[in-house]
Amino acid sequence: MSDVKRVLIVGCGIGGATAAYTLARIGLSVHCVDIAPKSSAAGTGICLLHNTLRALRAVELDGHCLESGLLFERFRQFDAAGNQTAVNPTPPGIGIRRPDLAHTLESAAIAAGATIEFGVTVTELEERANHVEVTFSNGSRGEYDIVVAADGTYSKTRRKVFGPDFEPEFVGQSGWRFSAPRQPDHDGFFLFRNNKGVAVGAIPTAQDTCYLFFLEGSQQHLHMPDDQLDTLLRERLAEYSAPLVRAALDQVTGPERVLFRPFDVRLMPGPWWHRGRVVLLGDAAHAPTPQLTSGGGLAIEDAVVLAECLSAPGTAMDALEAYSRRRIPRVKRVWEASRQLSQWERDDPLGNAEKSAALLLDTYRFLGEPM
Do 334 and 292 form a contact (C-beta atoms < 8 A)? Predict the structure, then answer.
């Protein structure tokens, strides 16, 4: 076991909550804070690929996710009318509703002994010889052996520690997402392409639910009026007559049913994802484009690997360096593949459709390699 005993985790999203669980599980004193006033019940769904299932299995959480989500093993492609054009087997994955996953991870962390506080964040960090002194937004203070920055793409902790040179950048795409009832024949990751190659994706999240997404390219950040999101989504998907897509759109009865977000990305360079005793995890280290549905899964892997490194004999620095050595090459390949898929979609989605599908399947296979 390393000499780390007390850990602060900043951010209680997928990566932060998983880390709170994995680190408490190995006997560390874990304090997790999040600026949000409470655990989020928002969001549509998320896809946990086979590598994520393996990571969850390693820490005995896969069963809980299987109970809440839906297992699938197929990637089907269709035209805009819903005629199937290709089908490929994929390694097993789970679609799951984001609130269900958040509940599973947070409950497991608390049961393992972690303390989670919402409505609180870090205002000051001061590293000393063998600990980090932290001041919180509620005026309290604490001392920790390491601090895990899991506060997302726009991580304020990363900026405090690494400086302003690593802000996320707009990748040229935005995403529309909405949830709907699942159709009985929706048995995998479905992709519907129009005659220009532009795709609508659909992933089941439970026996009775699924979520759909549509990606839109632009040179600059798009800003959509919140009270018109449903109308604007319908306009964009008007030419998709596939029964699954139309049935899902019938459920979009108001703008509150639609989520829209521009994609800002960031991959922190090596050789280390830590400075001193502050280490980056999840989107704070590697916010990807969504093409490989791997952002949350890679964050879960981060948390499992960090716990393994802290379980090994040595110092905090030994553990954090081992974590970087294991994570950076693996995450870099997946992050770069995801960004390449985004670029091909923006350049020529129809002309690049075949090689995009090949890269997607090849990266899925790579994710099966040891994390």
Answer: yes
